[in-house]
From TrEMBL:
HAMAP family noted in UniProt: CPSase_S_chain (MF_01209)
Quaternary organization: Composed of two chains; the small (or glutamine) chain promotes the hydrolysis of glutamine to ammonia, which is used by the large (or ammonia) chain to synthesize carbamoyl phosphate. Tetramer of heterodimers (alpha,beta)4.
Name the UniProt record assigns to this protein: Carbamoyl phosphate synthase small chain
CDD domains for this protein: GATase1_CPSase (cd01744)
Active site (UniProt): C246, H331, E333
Domain of life of the native organism: Bacteria
Family to which the UniProt record says this protein belongs: Belongs to the CarA family.
Species of provenance: Chryseobacterium suipulveris
Stored SMART domains: CPSase_sm_chain
Entry keywords, A to Z: Amino-acid biosynthesis, Arginine biosynthesis, ATP-binding, Glutamine amidotransferase, Ligase, Nucleotide-binding, Pyrimidine biosynthesis
This protein's pathway: Amino-acid biosynthesis; L-arginine biosynthesis; carbamoyl phosphate from bicarbonate: step 1/1; Pyrimidine metabolism; UMP biosynthesis via de novo pathway; (S)-dihydroorotate from bicarbonate: step 1/3
Molecular function terms, GO-annotated: carbamoyl-phosphate synthase (glutamine-hydrolyzing) activity
Amino acid sequence: MKKKLILESGEVFHGTGFGADTDTVGEVVFNTGMTGYQELISDPSYSGQLVCMTYPLIGNYGINRDDYESMEPAMKGLIVKELCDFPSNFRNQMTVDELFKKKNLSGIQGIDTRKLTRIIRNKGVVRGKIVNENVDEQEVVNFLNNFEVPSNQVESVSTKTAYAAPGRGFKVVLVDFGSKLGIIRELSQRDCDITVVSQDTTADEILLMNPDGVMLSNGPGNPEDVKGAKEMINGIIGKVPVFGICLGHQLIGLACGAKTFKLKFGHRGGNHPVLDIARNRVEITSQNHGYAIDSESLKSTDLEETHIALNDRTNEGFRHKVHPCFSVQYHPEASPGPEDTNYHFEEFIDLMYQFRNGTM
């Protein structure tokens, strides 16, 4: 199954297809993780994207039932140097190729992923399309130069109906902007009584549930496109402890008056060093975002910067100076370090305890 990847700038990569024999189009981004491809494939934050893996061999430990981050993949496709056909792992249940066939996803292998990554680093995120070998290349380039990435990505991956993950501890409302199951796992391990609600849930609806705390999840796309989020956040800050992750972090920033901007090629992978300013400690983090908070814009808000990315000095975390609210740009529910940043969930539990007992 001969395939090719065509970029909007005209570059063409010839390779072999895997998964479903269908064309697919999206933003082409790269991920620097050596492992974690199953979590990546099922991460809703990759909605609308073709993901290029910089590590050359993908699929060598297969796919298992436990490592999914959502029930249905939201990504558009996968680009790899070499796909493993015969995984070796005691948990393996199927290959990446078999999963992609079942989920009607398509990918391409056998291309120079290092060259593709250099193009993205130099030019920034580009649009691309995986097509059959005989498709006219100029027609695809013309199509890509007029292709608009959908702006309703959060709406497409958020739950449509609220659901519960019961526990006996603090009652937490998790606003699902494209939440990974890892967030629910971490809260459940701390015996939280979790209610997951849709991204368009209002502040009044959330407060009516009488939660001890509210979590704002990760998710895809431009934070400016998430309608109603700023109003909802402004309606709960100060009334209940709030913890944001990734897109949730950016939405808190926007609600408090900060600004966001699109990164040239984003942060995606499980090996990003971040400085915890207060502890003067470097942590290895898992990241997946294409937008960031403008650190300079924080100075005119009630938000105090707490974490900085060491690769490019962009903002990675802040806390509210007045109210019980904090957030991070990276993913503390992931385990790249392996658990360098897991303590944020304990901070959230402590914050809810102090707020409930009036000891803040």
